[in-house]
Design goal:
5-stranded antiparallel β-sheet; 8-stranded parallel beta barrel; alpha/beta; 15 strands; globular
Length: 386
């Protein structure tokens, strides 16, 4: 979906396909047919943006085989889909029964992360629509916090910047990569991103702002985005998402409601803001065990809840944080980013009674999320384009 900002800029809105399990090239093609095109049809659009997640095997196939890349581009065109952004955070196995800490490997201290991301950039230049010259890729924020050798990660990002420059010179298309701050990582907040990205100092490497992560870490969206702007760190893309919010975690009924969201597949880092600063656990079930996490103030958990459907009381979502962030990102005289992506990959991790049981129900839910995002953008003065 495309929108015209009042300054004349085109802003792209997509949804991320990491919600659909596909690890191979053939799996990606099936994904377009079985999931992405049905979402487009529900929205009544001739064209729908998707943020492709390409796992290692699919990325390698596409980077090495020009005919496979042409086939994918043709399938996108045939099904009314377009790609301006890729999700390069998960490397492989994102559809596994247990992902947890595995999603942070390989990290930016491992040469494979550089090779994977560079391959994604090459693939993206071949997938961009004919009238688009700039693409974006989100990636993990250096490493999980316990990883050794962070200086190696910065060296790898400098090499990546050089490769992106060479790619732009070769293809005439610019690809930018954004570190996606996430709770528990070396770069947990947008503030944590300032020093390493200033040290790297490359205009093609910036930040991907995920509004679920922003909210989980209790960051003020206006202050966070103002700091990035003041430091000259580009917002490469933004992921529109909402976290799980519990206003009174000391109450037994709130604990019971939260327990329904503790599940074995993904990490749900949980945070609370105290007088001494941010406190947290690596997962929601840890927070619910005894008195590990103070419960005098609200808790927020890294659980991407559907944008249009906040959990039932006594829980809610951090949709207000998303609204505030989006107003700062696109509501000003010029947009801070031109690539927006709805990323709710936890549909199948919801409590059983909330999970979509069929492809049709999942497509309905994703279409509803995109509709909400579209309405937020038009309320900010952007005009939806055909």
């Amino acid at each position: 979906m495309r929108f015209r900002h009042p300054d004349g800029t085109t802003v792209h809105l997509a949804y991320c396909t990491n919600v659909h399990p596909a690890e191979t090239f053939d799996g990606v093609l099936a994904q377009l047919r079985d999931h992405c095109e049905p979402v487009r049809r529900r929205l009544g659009r001739d064209r729908l943006g998707i943020g492709l997640w390409l796992a290692r095997d699919a990325a390698r196939t596409l980077a090495a085989d020009p005919s496979a890349l042409r086939t994918l581009r043709d399938e996108l065109d045939r099904r009314g889909l377009e790609v301006v952004t890729l999700n390069g955070f998960p490397y492989e196995g994102f559809g596994a029964d247990e992902v947890k800490y595995r999603v942070y490997r390989p990290d930016w201290t491992d040469p494979e992360r550089l090779e994977y991301t560079a391959a994604l950039a090459r693939v993206l230049t071949g997938l961009l629509p004919d009238d688009v010259t700039e693409g974006s890729i989100s990636t993990l924020p250096l490493a999980w916090r316990t990883a050794p050798g962070p200086h190696r990660a910065l060296d790898a990002l400098r090499v990546l910047g050089e490769r992106l420059d060479a790619l732009a010179e070769l293809t005439g298309r610019s690809v930018r990569v954004g570190l996606e701050p996430e709770p528990g990582c070396v770069v947990e907040t947008t503030g944590d991103a300032l020093a390493p990205l200033t040290a790297v100092g490359h205009p093609r490497i910036g930040v991907c702002v995920d509004t679920c992560h922003l909210a989980t870490s209790f960051e003020d969206p206006h202050r966070a985005l103002d700091a990035l702007t003041a430091a000259g760190v580009p917002v490469v893309k933004a992921q529109l998402s909402a976290a799980l919010h519990a206003g009174q975690p000391h109450l037994p009924e709130v604990r019971r409601a939260l327990a329904a969201f503790a599940e074995p597949r993904f990490l749900h880092q949980t945070r609370t803001l105290t007088a001494a600063g941010l406190r947290g656990t690596d997962d929601l079930d840890e927070a619910l065990t005894g008195d590990v996490l103070p419960d005098a103030a609200p808790w927020r958990a890294h659980f991407h809840v559907p944008l249009h459907a906040a959990p039932a009381p006594p829980l809610t979502s951090t949709l207000p944080v998303l609204r505030a962030a989006l107003a700062r990102l696109t509501g000003g005289p010029r947009p801070l980013t031109r690539h927006l992506e709805v990323e709710t990959y936890t549909w199948q991790a919801l409590p059983p009674e909330l999970r979509p049981r069929t492809r049709d129900r999942l497509a309905d839910g994703i279409a509803a999320e995109l509709t909400l995002a579209r309405d937020l953008l038009t309320d900010l003065g952007l005009k939806e384009l055909p």
